[in-house]
Amino acid sequence: MAGVLSYHPPPPLLRPLHQSENFRRRYRVSAGSQESYSSMPSLSTVTSRDEEEKSMASAPSPTLSPPTGFKIPDPKPFAVRPDKNLDIATATLPLLFRLGTGIFVLGYSSTLVSDEDIPSNQYAMKVRGSKLKETSKLGPRPQKPIEIYEFESCPYCRKVREIVSILDLDVLFYPCPRSGPTFRPKVLQMGGKQQFPYMVDPNTGVAMYESDDIIKYLADKYGDGTIPLMLSLGPITTLTAMLALIFRLGKGSSYTPSKQPPVPLELWAFESSPFCKIVREVLVELELPHLLHSIARGSPRRHEFYQKMGHFQVPYLEDPNTGVKMFESAEIIEYLKATYAL
């Protein structure tokens, strides 16, 4: 039975999880014969036994080894490691300047219902003995991930990442930190200038610069054409996006020498999460391409994630190059640096 509380935020600006095995085959560079390191279940697996066997046979084997002595941490929801208190605090402040843009997906609404109205195997936030039923209204789903070249500390890039969360899109991010040797030159080659963000939609062949144009294109193509207020205020939007980044002191902007992964990593995250932000900063600094699966509030992926993993927590990283699958932002950062930094 529904309760008395309903929430419908102003129209901000979603894709079911997932095409991961096809994605990995498409972007595979090389494959070895190493067994998967992690025993943690993969979100990329399928439910049918026949399909699962076919998937396992065609999926690339890990080609790198995890760091010596590496152990996958146990997930600890809402826990902050003491040495990351300041990072999480400063990564939370952007929510104030951006008024939480990117927390909710397109058409988000919520209703407080009794505990028995939502089965225990479905994701739902508990609120004083009741559960929060969250729904959304999705636009058309792209067949292939959108490709975006950007870097974390760019305010114009943040605006585009916010619309990605709101539309619940899968995006293949190519990080372009300053002095990055790989993807910055590629943007110059493709578009004629090193300006960010730069978007390529392999579903339509459209490629473009300019954050506002990218936002409008994505909202029209994969949403309902509505652009959220905080992304439609012109100079005020840009100013608040700049202020949102100031407390991170340029993290996620400069290149750290690294080795390129044969296959892009995969990250389940959403823009407004401070835990996800500090992981994304390191992915950008190491210039590690990654397929991001947006999973903001109201995303149907949350239900799928919960059913696969038994609980909900982000960020969650899968590295097909080593077989590692893990939670915990602080440990993910250590893993990325130990595995890919030179």
Automatic annotation (TrEMBL):
Q: Which CDD domains match?
A: GST_N_2GST_N (cd03041)
Q: Where is this region: Disordered?
A: 1-76
Which segments constitute the GST N-terminal domain? 144-226, 263-342
Compositionally biased residues, Low complexity: 56-68
List the SUPFAM superfamilies hit by this protein, alphabetically.
Thioredoxin-like
- Ranges of Polar residues compositional bias? 31-47
Q: Which named protein is this?
A: GST N-terminal domain-containing protein
Its GO CC terms are: chloroplast
